[in-house]
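Protocol step 4 of 6: structure prediction from sequence.
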Amino acid sequence: QPGGNKSGLDKFLFGQSAAFSMQDLILMGTVTFFVMATLWFLHKEMLCFSFDSAYASTIGVPTRLIHFLQMTCLSFAIVVGIQAVGVVLVSAMLITPAATAYLVRERLPQMLRISAILGMMAGAFGTYCSFLSTGLPTGPFIVVFATLIFIPTYLFAPRHGVLRKWWRNRSSRLRTARENTLKSIFHIFEKEGFVTEQVGVLELAHQRRQSEEEVQASIKELERSGFATQSGDQLVLTPEGYRRACEIVRNHRLWELYLVKNADIAADHVHDDAERIEHVLSHEIIHELEKELEFPDTDPHGKPIPGWEDLKRGTAVDVNPKPEGPGLINLYKEPFQEEDR
């Protein structure tokens, strides 16, 4: 209303920590002590309840009491936070420090410590700015400081940062594309009975069902990785490139055979799953698959699983490694040494 008095509503919305009274400080200290004591004495129970409440209940954790205490601590923190940063921005202070800590650490105790430190730093900064002038509300400056820490952390965190995730996904896509190209080259060699050491660009484009420009981009990526060299319109795999091609085909066909024998899936339904899983199978898993399947020679479609004889026929590969199992090579020994003969 015209001429009306807002009666301190702006302080309620945005906070004014510079005007704290002794009673306010005592209240905050009491709430802080209660929350910290609760977290200290019930840390294990709260940790278990937060991750899996059903499991916590089965091992005897009083889940209802823990839930009640968590909500009580949260309510107390909100009441105190309204006085400090205002009702509008209190949610930001509940989330931002914790989110920042989550981006840089994965263990809950470390997250708690980091989020508490960030909250204290933001509070000190906002209080100082509010003390400088009566026109500077405390709450927004506290949140601004917390956000200024969160944004670079969100972008550059070593594990969960946006740029790190982008780079990891990009690297994964490039690796998958390289391995698919190597697999296609192996299939061409296989069709021709391993009598050639070269693959034509147009032949590879036909095998990959891609344009010549797309295949040229894939070839450049293989060259950068040291898997192939190009001379004119012909592509030659390096020893490492042929070795990796054998590995990826071996992964694919072993996984298909495993699904058919152990998961009872029809042979004509396993290809798509093997296409996805072949790129992430570790060497240890492959060794376990070999043992589980008793060192097979062929996949469910009757195609041979690459072994050491295939490596001997490979481009510029002059090795005679000791087989593991019936005629099969340990493809993952890096590099082949003289004692392997």
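Step 5 (inspection) to follow. Residues 314-341 have pLDDT under 50 and may be disordered.
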